[in-house]
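README: folding subset

This subset contains proteins for which both the sequence and a predicted structure token string are available. Records are stored as plain text. Below is the entry for Protease (188 residues), shown exactly as it appears on disk.
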Amino acid sequence: MMSKKILVLAGDFVEDYELMVPFQCLLMLGHKVDVICPDKKAGEQIKTAIHDFEGDQTYTEKPGHNFTLNATFDEIDENDYDALVVPGGRAPEYIRLNQRVLEIVKNFNSKNKPIASICHGIQVLAAANIVEGRTCSCYPACAPDVNLNGGTWKDIGFEEAIVDANLVTAAAWPAHPQWLAKFNELLK
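--- output ---
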């Protein structure tokens, strides 16, 4: 498989595993992966959060690692990329307010380029209005974001992923093996 150029949309308190694991796995597969954050430049850091499932009504949240960005938000041209990754965590709830973030997502979708979204990342896709008519998964608390935007949320558990056209979605980081494998298939 030829190396692809992949863009990752992140922000402070992105879920640690949902940024770190895909970033490292995609690099390991030989892809070029650029991680950007609104209002930040290459070399600056974002904080991550670790979400864990410990028997409570929802996930718990703990401080994660710092992640050093390797691209500058204001300098990228999404047309130079083959695919997009939108990790979850807390970042999607506020980066979706950035109009440029929404333009980037819409551009990838309009060109039918692969988009991988996990957990709360669906909030960005819903805000970009690209889930209408699509079947998607995400963290169950985000299911209304899918359904209210004309999509269909499918409960596939926490270890599976679903593909609908150019979108591959999953509920949370336990789905990484399935989510990344299905995304890698879309990259071919």
